[in-house]
Protein 1
Amino acid sequence: MAKVTFRSITKQFGSFTAVDDVSFEIEDGEFVCLLGPSGCGKTTTLRMIAGLEQPTEGRILIGDSDVTDAKPKERDIGMVFQDYALFPHMTIAENIAYPLKVRSVNKHDRHERAAEVAKSLQIDQLLERRPGQISGGQQQRASVARAVVHKPRVYLFDEPLSNLDAKLRLEARSYLKHLQRELGVTSVYVTHDQAEAMAMADRVAVMNHGKIVQFGPPLEVYRRPGTTFVANFLGSPPMNLLPVTYSNGAFEAADFSLDAAPFGKELRGVANGTQLTLGIRPEHLRLSTDADHWVLPGAVYAVEPLGPESLVTLRVADALVTARLFSDEPPTQLDGAGFGFDPANIHLFAADGERLTRG
Amino acid sequence: MNVVRHVLGRVGFYVVSSLFAAIFALPLLWLVVAPFSTKANLSVSLPEQWSLSNFARVFANSFAVRALFQNSVIQAVGTMVLVTLLATLAAYALSRAPIRGRDTISYGLVLFSSIVTGTAAMVPIFLLIFRMGLIDTHLGVILVFTGGLLPAAVFIMRDFVDSIPRSYEESALVSGASHWGMFRDIALPIVRPGMMVVGVWTFVNVWGGFLVPFILLRSPGKMPASVAIYSFYTEGGTPIITLTTAYALLYTLPVLALYLFVNWKYGFRFFGGIKS
C-alpha cells in the first residue's frame, strides 16, 4: 500500500509527445481512473508506473521511494492487461501462482495461496484448466487473481473490462470495485468508458493530448466540467453544447435568444460579440410548457424510448440537442416542441473551451 | 440425371487423384519392398521370398554403418542444436529489440542463405574452411551448414516470435520476473513449437545434404550416410539395388522417427502464439 506520485513526467516517442509534463499524487488506498479517448496518453501513463516504459523526463515515486529507473520487478505492483495475458502454456493455478514462483515461494505455499485467491474470485473450480479452455469472464478473473496474489503495493488495470460483453462488464465492474474496497490497495485504472470511471473511481483524471485536463472526484468532475472536452466526454448521452454569441445581455443564436442576466458574475469582463458555448446536460432538459421562461425551440429529430426513460433529440439552430425524459411512456405530443430548463443548470464555456467561473 | 452426373464427377475425381497419388506413392512403395528382396530391380513387385540378407550385408559394411549411425547423427544433431538455439535468440532480438531496419536485415539474410550452401559458393567456402584448419572435421561441416541454414531459420522463428503478444512478456515482468526469467518461463515455452519446426527442418536438411560433407571431409571415418551410400555402388558406378535400397530405408528411418516424435509431442505448426 503506497502513494503514487508523478513529478513533471514527460514521455516522448520520437517526436510524438505521448505524455506532456504530467504531475499528480494518488493517495494511499485510493482508486484513481485515468479516463480519455484513445491516444490521450492514459495507457502510457499506466505503463510508466509499471516500469514498462521509461519517462523521458520527470520522476515517479511509489511510496517514498523513487522508482523512475527501477525495473518492473522492483516496483511491487500487480497489473491486469486488456487481453489478460494469461500464459497459455500454464494452468490457471500456475498462472495465478507465477508472481509467487518468481519470488521463490515454495510450491506448496504458493499453490495454497493461489487456491485461496481463486476461491475468493469464484474460479477455484478452474484451477487445473488452461487459459484457452475457459471463458473471457473467467480469464478476466484469473488475471485479476494473478495481479493480487502476491499482495502488491499498487494495482494497475489497463482497460480490463473492454473485452467483455456488456452484461459481464457490469458484473465485473461491481466485483472489481468491491475487491478494491475490501483490499484497500492503491489502484490506477485506465479506461475510455466514462461510465466505468464514474462508477468505480474515488477520483477521475480526464486526459487529452497527453495532459490531465481535470482531476477530481467523479461527481465533481461531472457537475463542474472544467472544459468543453470534459463536459462532452462524461455523461451518456454527453452534455449538449451550443455555440452562441453574447450580445447586449443575451445569448444569441440563429433560432433563439436567451436572457443572460443570471450569469452576471461569470460574464464579468466578457465583451459584447464574444463567442461562447452553452452547455446543458440531457437530464436537465424537459419538454417545455407555457410556464417556462427558459426555452430552446427546435424541430423533432429523433425519439428513442429506452424503458425507464426516453431520449428526445431536437434540432436547435444547427446543433442537435438531446434530453433524457424520465417517464415510462415516450412523449407523443411533440409538435412545436422545445426544451425548458433551469438556468442554474447551464454551464458556460469560453471559445477556447475553458469554463467561465464566477468572479 | 443430376445424380448420375454427380456420381460420375466424383468417380472421375477419385480416378484422377488416385493416379496422382500413385505417381508419388510408387517410389515409396518400392523403397519399402525392394530391400527385402534378394532379386530387387527397378520394378515394384512383392518379393517371392522375404529376406533380411540385404540388411545383413549392409551391416557388414562398417564404413556405411558408422557413417549412418555416428557421423550423420553428429553432423545433423550438432547443426540442429546450434541453428535452433541461435535462430531463437536472434529471432527474439530481431522481433523485440528496437533495432533500426530489422525487417531489411531479416529479408536480406534470407536472400543470403540460399547463397551460402549453394554450389557457386563452394570454392570460397572450401578455402575459408581450409584456412580455418577445419577441413576434415565435423565442426567444419556443422559450421557451414549452420551458416547456410541459420538465416532462413531466423526468418521462420521471427514469424513465430512476432505472433506472440508482448503482453505475455510484460505481464511476466510486472509479476516480478527478471528478463532472463521471463525468457525462460514464458517466451521459450511459447515459441517451442517454432523451435521444433526449425529443428526438424534443419535436421532434415543436414541429414540429406551431400555436397558440403563430400567436399569438406577427407577421411572415410567421418563421412555421413549421404556420402557413404556410394559404397554400395559397383566399381563401374552402377548402384547395387538390393543394398542401396536397404541402406536408404535405414537412412530414412531417423527422419521419420523424429517427425513422428515431434508431431506427437508438440504438434507441427507453422505459426506461433496461442490464442487464449
Protein 2
Amino acid sequence: MTDLSHIRNFSIVAHIDHGKSTLADRLIQSTGTVQDREMKEQLLDSMDIERERGITIKAQTVRIDYVALNGEKYVLNLIDTPGHVDFAYEVSRSMRAVEGSLLVVDSTQGVEAQTLANVYQAIDADHEIVPVFNKIDLPASDVSRVAEQVEDVIGIDASGAIPVSAKTGQGIREVLEAIVHHLPAPQGDRDAPLKAMLVDSWYDPYLGVVVLVRIKDGVLKKNDRVRFMQNGTVHQVDRIGVFKPGMLPVDELGPGEIGFLTASIKQVRDTRVGDTITHEKKGADKPLPGFKPSIPVVFCGLFPVDSAEFEDLRDAIEKLALNDASFSYEMETSAALGFGFRCGFLGLLHLEVIRDRIEREYDIELITTAPSVVYHLYMRDGEMRELHNPADMPDLTHVDHIEEPRIKATILVPDEFLGDVLKLCQDRRGIQLELTYAGSRPLVVYDLPLNEVVFDFYDRLKSVTKGYASFDYQMIGYREDNLVKMSILVNDEPVDALSMMVHRDRAEMRGRAMCEKLKDLIPRHMFKIPIQAAIGGKVIARETLSALRKDVTAKCYGGDATRKRKLLDKQKAGKKKMRQFGKVDIPQEAFISALKMDS
Amino acid sequence: MPETWQEGGFGLYVHWPFCQSKCPYCDFNSHVVERVDQRAWADALSAEVARHAAETPGRVLGSIYFGGGTPSLMTEHTVAAVLAAADQGWTLANDVEITLEANPSSVEADRFAGYRAAGVNRVSLGVQALRDPDLRKLGRLHDTAAARRAIEVAQETFGRVSIDLIYARQDQSEEDWAAELDEALSLGLDHYALYQLTIEPGTAFGDRFARGRLPDLPDEDRSFRLWETTQEMCSAAGAPGYEISNHARPGQESRHNRIYWASGDWVGVGPGAHGRLTLDGTRIATEGIRAPGAWLASVRERGHGDSTRETLSARETRDELVLMGLRTRDGIDLDRVARAAPDEPELALDAMKAAGLVEIEGRTLRATEAGRVLLNSVIAEILPD
C-alpha cells in the first residue's frame, strides 16, 4: 500500500505511429520494471496482431516503481490505451481511471486527427496533460513548430513540453520527473466504504476472468466478498495484484491504486465495464457514475470456407466473445454460403482483427461478406426495425422510410491534397460542417453516412493523400435518406452475400462498378456468364463475362503425367475454396474486393 | 484379361541432360557443362537399362526415345551402347521405333549417318521457328538456313522426320504464323509437333514475364485463333492433329508418345527421367535424380539412379489414364477406365457431353475439337473429387 501522495496514475495519448508504445517500453525499461533480457518491443501489446500492426487494441496496465531525483519513491501506474478510432470507447473509460496524460506528438509530423480525438477525451476527463515531443533524434524534427501547433490547435500550454527520443532514450528521465511533479496525485479515502471502478476485464484460460480495477475509496483485500453494484452479483475475491507488467500478487489495494482481482468469474459478459465494486457488507450506497456500453456499428457475415468447419467456427467465435464483450454474433444461414455467423463490430479494424484472429489462432479459413451498418426501418404500421443484413430487407411496400447512421468525420490533411479530400467526402454523400486551419494545415469536418465509410473510405483517403491525411470519427445519429437494396445476379442467380444497401442516386454507379469488378474477379468458365445489378426486379447494370476459349497444356509427355495430375488435384482443392452459385464458381476474395470502390 | 498397360504398349525413354546453352522458354531438366565423359554416361545409362530389364523380363520393346536436353550431343558410340543394352535386355519389336531428338545445326547433321548406323530410325528436330529474328529471341543457336539443310539431311538419312515449332510467340499475328506454318507444311514432312509458347515459372522467360518484360504475348482469344488456324492448315495439308500439339500423316504418328498418352508402360532412364511400370498388377511411378552428377554417382555407387519409386493408387492410375488419353484423337476406352479404378466414383460426363465437349462412341470417350482446346477445364469437370 502506497500513500496517495506518492501515486501517479496516467495514460499516454498519441496518434498511431507517433511512438506511444516505444515510449511506454522506455519508461518501463529505464526504471528496471522489466529486466533487459525480458524486454521485447511493444511490451504492452500482447497479441501478435497488435505487434504486427503496431497498434494497441486492449488497454494494458503496468505499475512502475520510480525513485525520483528528490529521493522519494513513487508508484506510477500507466494505462496504455488503444489509438485507433474503432476503440475510442476503450480510450474513454481508461481515461476515467487516471488523473493525467502524456500527450505524445511526433515532432517530425505534428498534430494528427487521432491526437485531437484522444486529447479531447483526456481534457473531458479533467486530466492534467504533459506534452511530449517524440522523435527528436530524426533530422526532420521541428519541436518549436509542433509546440506552436499544440497551443494553436489543441489550446494547451506547451511551454513545459518535453523533447524526447523514445528510440535513443533521450529525455526519458525528464518525462518521469514530469509525471511526478506535474501530474496530480489521486484522491480517495482509505476509511470510506470500498468503491472500485471496473475499468476492463478479460478472460485468462488459467485464472478465469481478470478484472482491472481502480480503487477510489476503501481497501480491497484477498478473500473479501464483493458486490458488483450494477449487476447485483456477489463474488469472493481469489486473488488481487498489480501488473509489472506480469501479474504480481499483493495483499491489498488501497485508494488511488490500480490492479486486478480474480473471483472465479467465468465469462467476460458477467462483468460490466464501468461497474462499481464494493464490499458485500458495509458497502457503498451509491455507485460511481458508469460508462455507456459500447455498441457494434458494423456488421458482416463470417462463414467457413469449408462448411465442415462450422462447429469449429462457432467454438472460435464463442471463445473470442468471452474476452471481448463489444463483439456480438448470431447464427446466420445464407443460401450461397451455408451456415455462418452475423457478427457486429466496433468498426472495420475491429472486424479485421477478429477475422485475423479466427483465421490465425483457430486456423479456420473464412469468407467475409460485405460489411453493413445498422439501418433503421420505419414500417407503415409504425414499428421500427433494425436491419443488420441487407439480405433481410423486407418487402418495400411495408416500409415507410429508412434511416441510416451518420458520423462526424474529422480529417487533417496537407493543403495540396485538400481538393481531393473534399471531392472524396462529397462523392461519399458528405455534408461539409467545417473547414478551418490547424496551424498551416486544413482541418475538415464532414457529416458522412457511415455506410459510405465502413468499407474503404480510409483506404481511399490514404491513397488520395499519399498517406498524409489523418482521420477520426464519431457517431452522431440517424437520418432518413433514399436508400434501396441492390441485388447482384451472377448467371441469373441472386448472390445474397453480395447484396447491399445503397443510396438511390448512387445505385447505377455502384452497380456498374460492382459488375465490372466481378467480371474481373470471377474466372472465365466454359460458358458465358451475365453479371447484373438489380433493384427489385429492375436491372440497373450488366456485364457479360465471356466464355473460356482456350485452356489446354501444350506439352504433355511421360515426364509430365505426375506433375499434371498433382496440378489437377491442386486445381480441385482451389475450386473447393470457391463458392458455387448455380454453375458458377466465385472466388472468396470476390466478396470483399467487389465492394471496394475506385472513386 | 491382359494387364491394362499392354493396351498402351511398352517403351524406353533415355534422358540426355546436357545442352550447349539453355533456352529461355525451356523448363526441362537440362544443364550446360563444358565437358561430358561420354564413356561414363554410356556405361551408367546402359546399367540402368539392364537394371530395369531385369524387373520386366520377357517383354517386347516397341519404342526407344532419346530425349533431353540435347541428345544429338551424344556420340554415336554412346547411342549405340544404350541401344545394345536395350537389345540385350528385352526383345525388340520387328518394327521398333527408335527416335532421337536433335538440334538442326550443321554440326549435328554431320552425325546423323552415325546415329542411323547405330539403329536410330526416326529423328525429331528442334527447329522451333522458321524466322531468324524469332530464333534468336528463343535463344536458339541455329538459323533457318541451317535448319533447312539439317531437315534435308535428316530426310535422306532417316525414314521418318518430325520437326518441333513454337508458335503464339511475342508479336506473332495470325497471318505471320499462317505463312510460317505454310512454309513448314510445304517441306512435306510426315510429322509436326506444334506447341504454343508456354511461359513456365523458373525459366528465363518466366522471370522476364513476371517482371513485365515479355510484352505482346497473345491473349487467350488470339491464342485460340492461332490454335484453330493450326488445326485447319494441318488437316488441309494431310497431317491432321492426333494429339493437342502433334500432327501427322496417317500412320506416321509417334509410336513412342502414344505409350504415354495411352498409359502404357515405359522405362525411364537418366537424370530426372520419369517411368511407369506395372509390376505384379501394381502401377509404379519412378523418377531419376535430377542433378546429372548426383545421378551418375548414385548409379555407380548405389546401383540405381532413382530419386523416387512410388506406387500409384487406383485413382491416380485412372486419373492419368483420363488426363493423358483425352489429349488424343483416339480417346480412351471407358471399360479400361472402369477396370483401372473399380471402387472409385465414375467420371462425371453428362454435363460435358451436353455441352458438346466430349463424345462417346461405343465404349470410347473422346474430347471433341471444341473440348480439346478446353481440355484442362474439361478434365477438371469430369474427374470426380
